[in-house]
Amino acid sequence: MFKCIYKLYIIFKRKRKKSTYKNSKEIRMFDKNLLNSISSTQDSCDIIIKVGKKLPVEELTPIKNSNDNNPFRDKEFLSEIYNQNYKEFHVHSSILLKDIKSKYFYNALSNFTNDNDLKSTEKCMIKENQIIVLELPEINPTIFEVILEFVYNGNLDINNFTAQEIVSLLFASSYLDLKNLTSRLFTTHFTKIIHALNTSYSTINHFDETIYSQKIDQRRYIINHLCLEYSSVIFGSNYYLSFYKNFIHDILLSDDLIMNELEVWTKLIKWGIFNSDISQKFSLLSSSNITLNELIKDFSGKDFTKLGEKIKDLIPLIRFYQIELDDYFKEIGYPFKSILPEGLNKGIFKYNMKKEIFSNNNNILPPRKYQKIDSTIIVGEQTALLAKWIKECNFGEYLKVEDDFDFKLLFRGSKNGFDIGTFHKKCDGIDNTIVIIKIKDSDEIIGGYNPFSWQSLFNIGLQSFPYENYNVPCSSSFLFSLNNTRLGNDSKNVLSKIKENQINEAIYYNQTGGPKFGKSDLYLVNISSQENLVGHCKKYSYSHQITDKSFFKVEDYEVFQVIVN
Description:
The protein has 565 residues and is α+β, with helices and mostly antiparallel strands.
C-alpha cells in the first residue's frame, strides 16, 4: 500500500518540476480555463498571492516505519498532504488595479515604490526582486479562485456552493473590499447566507461587520430584507447576542421587523444583559428559553444601572404603545421601571384609556408593517411572507422596502358562517383577494391568491345567470402552504405557482362552490348542509401539492382583500 502511494507521489512530483517558473521556484497557477482567458502571458505576472496557511516542513513529524519505501517518512510528501489548504497564485497587478475593483488591493499596491526588498505598511506584503508578495492566510484557496475568476472575467459560478461556502466567499470579498462581488452575493444568494446564520458563531461574528461595509442604501435594503423575511432566523438562536450595537439599532429602527413587540423587548433586554458586566449574562448561554423574570430576579440596583446605560439609546426604538396594557405593565412597566424613560408608564396608561386623543401624536411610534392583521389563523410574519409572494408573482421581483400592503378582512367562516352563498355575497366583485384556510384537526394552513375578483353570476341583458365551472386565465395566482409549528423555517412553507401550460385553468367561477383554484388543486364546497364545509385538494394545474390530504374538513377560513399602498 505504501509503495503504491509513494509511486503516485513521485509521478506527481515529477509533473510539478516540469512547470517551474523562471527562477525555478515552484508555483501553482489557478484554474487553466481562467488562464486561457487572460491575454497576458504567465511571464507578465508581477504579483504572488500566498493564500491559506502553510505548515513549515521542519514542523512536520515523519511517521517512523521500518519500511524505507513508506512515503510518510518523506517530509516533502507530508507537506503536500498537510498543506492542501495553501496555494500560491501568480496574478497581474494591471488586472487587480483596473477600475479599482478592490480598494484593498489598490491601497496595498500603492504603498510600493521601485526600490527592491521594500517592506510594506501591510505586514502581509513584501517586495522581492520586483515581484510583490501578498499573504492572505485567512482566506481559503478554493474561495480565492472564485474571487480571481470574478476579478478577471466577471464570472460567478457558485450554484453548487454550500451556504457556509457562500458565506466564506462573502466575508472574503468584504475583507478585500470587492463591493461589486459582495453586493452580487447579497442579491443572488441571500437565502443561503441568512440560513447560514443559524449554523455557526463565526458566521454571526462577521456578518454585521460585512453588512456595514456596504453603501448605506445597500445596507438599508439588506437590513429591511432581513427584518421582513428572516426575523425568526436572526433571533432563532442566541447568536444574535453577539451582534454589534449599531446593527441591533438598525434592526429595531426598521418598520419591517416582523415580531411581536413584547418579544422585541425581550430580545433587547437579553442582548443588553449579555453585553454588560452583569453576572446573569452566563445564564443566557445555558438556555435560550430563559424568561426575563428569571434573569432579573437577583438583579441589584447596580445591575439595572449597567443594563440601562447599555441600552438607553435603544429603548426609544421599542413600540411600547403597540403592546397590550396588561402585558406592558406585567412584563415591562413594573419590573423595568428604573431604566424606562420618565413618564412612559403614565403615558401608556393614558393612551390605553383614551386612544382617540393620541391618534395624531407624532411621538408615538406606529405599528410595524404587517404586525397588525385581523386574523385568527395567521400572524405577522406569515402575513409578510404572503405579501412577498404576492409582489413576486405579480411583478416578478421581491417586495421593495418602500412598498406596503394592507390586508382588509372581508369574510371569516367562524364569524359570518360557512355557507358558500355568504362567501359570494361578501367577496364577489372584489379584486386582489387571498383565501386562508385552517384544516381541522391539523396544524396545516393552506390557501390561494386571486388577483381578479370572485364571481358567481354573469349578466346577459337584464338577466343574471349562474356560473358553472367557468375557467378564468391568470398567470399570477398562486397556492400556498404555511408552516404553523415553527415560524421562519422556509422549508416548511410552500409556494405553488400556476403551471405555464395551465394558465387558462388558474381560477374557476362556480355559484354552487366556494373559491376554486385550478381543475382540482384547491376547492371548497358545502356537503349535506350549509355549515358543513369541506375542501378538496389534488395537484393538477399548479406546480406543487400544498397538502397530503385529498379531502379535508375546514376548521375556519378567512378572505382578505390585499390593498397595495
